[in-house]
TrEMBL record:
InterPro entries named in the record: Aminotrans_IV, Aminotrans_IV_CS, Aminotransferase-like, BCAT-like_C, BCAT-like_N, Class-IV_PLP-Dep_Aminotrnsfr
UniProt xrefs under PROSITE patterns: AA_TRANSFER_CLASS_4
Family: Belongs to the class-IV pyridoxal-phosphate-dependent aminotransferase family.
Pfam families for the chain: Aminotran_4 (PF01063)
The reaction(s) this protein catalyses: L-valine + 2-oxoglutarate = 3-methyl-2-oxobutanoate + L-glutamate; L-isoleucine + 2-oxoglutarate = (S)-3-methyl-2-oxopentanoate + L-glutamate; L-leucine + 2-oxoglutarate = 4-methyl-2-oxopentanoate + L-glutamate
EC number: 2.6.1.42
Metabolic or biological pathway, per its Swiss-Prot or TrEMBL entry: Amino-acid biosynthesis; L-leucine biosynthesis; L-leucine from 3-methyl-2-oxobutanoate: step 4/4; Amino-acid biosynthesis; L-valine biosynthesis; L-valine from pyruvate: step 4/4; Amino-acid biosynthesis; L-isoleucine biosynthesis; L-isoleucine from 2-oxobutanoate: step 4/4
Cofactor section: pyridoxal 5'-phosphate
Protein's organism: Loktanella salsilacus
Tree of life domain: Bacteria
A single GO cellular-component term on record: cytosol
Protein name as annotated: Probable branched-chain-amino-acid aminotransferase
GO molecular function term, any single one: branched-chain-amino-acid transaminase activity
Length: 284
């Protein structure tokens, strides 16, 4: 694989960063994951905007412009011959050469890394047909989940807890209500209404979420942005998640209880189809 590091395209085993990098020592960094379908970038604009917001919230310098970033994404797709897959981008605060809690001075160069992950046929994932099973776990992350930082240890633990329970993911619960999945936004469906938690510091503002809600409104569905409990989700007609890497994915079981008929429902299937069609058309 060819990867990108601080302005250079390199073979992956030649890309090296300092052991003092604050991304490594302190998880002082942000990231984005953009999917590629048919060699084109899905929702690039949304990811570029959220990246800027994450950097601003952490007073971090953006080492690149939106146009240069688009070019780097496209070049990596070309160099690695990616048809379907993902591009991972990470920017950390870099380092002034030692460990220190205080940020280094503003002129310290950030570290920017991008790499590709090929996922042939990712839009035809068999899970879209079978649906996924989730467990609920306490949300024990920090309080600024709207900033897409690389501190992913708790979500990682959550995935392991799900795996140990024979499930695919975990929905995190705080003050009695679902916040989101370990790496996705969570939804339930009742009749023609889609219910998902409102935006706040408690959840990541999903780029796929924004697009899917827009398409749902255009398709005359109703949207309620509010918290919901696990019990309400278990009694809903349908449940699903969204993320850049899974698009729209049905959830058929929560803590061992079947949701609706226990099979993927029509609303999630329709939204998945619309999302894939529309975002392919708008891909860059
Ligand atoms: N919520 C969390 C915690 C995530 O990590 C992610 C994606 O990685 C999402 C939601 C979905 O966001 P997006 O649709 O922008 O991929």
């Amino acid at each position: 694989r060819t990867v990108y590091l601080n302005g250079e395209y390199l073979p992956e085993d030649e890309a090296k960063i300092s052991i003092f990098d604050r991304g490594f020592l302190m998880a002082d960094g942000v990231y984005e994951v953009t999917s590629v379908l048919g060699g084109k970038l899905i929702d690039f604009e949304g990811h570029a905007l959220r990246l800027q917001r994450s950097l601003d919230e952490l007073e971090m310098q953006h080492p690149s412009s939106r146009d240069d970033l688009l070019e780097v994404h496209r070049e990596l797709v070309r160099l690695n011959d990616i048809t379907d897959g993902m591009i991972y981008l990470q920017i950390t605060r870099g380092s002034a050469g030692d460990r220190d809690f205080a940020y280094p001075s503003k002129d310290t160069a950030p570290t920017i890394v991008l790499f590709t992950q090929a996922k042939p046929g990712m839009a035809d994932s068999p899970m879209a047909k079978t649906g996924m099973k989730v467990i609920s776990i306490a949300d024990q992350r920090w309080g600024r989940r709207d900033i897409k930082t690389v501190q992913l240890l708790y979500p990682s633990m959550g995935k392991m807890m799900a795996k140990a329970a024979g499930c695919d993911d975990a929905w995190m619960v705080e003050d009695g209500a679902v916040t989101e999945g370990t790496s996705n936004n969570a939804y339930i469906v009742k009749g023609n209404t889609i219910i998902t938690r409102q935006l706040s510091h408690e959840i990541l503002h999903g780029i796929t979420r924004a697009a899917v809600l827009r398409f749902a409104l255009e398709a005359q569905m109703k949207i309620e942005e509010r918290p919901f409990t696990i019990e309400e989700a278990q009694g809903a007609d349908e449940a699903f998640i969204t993320s850049a890497s899974t698009f729209v994915m049905p959830v058929v079981e929560i803590d061992g209880a079947a949701v609706g008929a226990g099979t993927p429902g029509p609303v999630a299937a329709r939204l998945r189809e619309i999302y894939l069609d529309e975002s392919r058309k708008a891909a860059l």
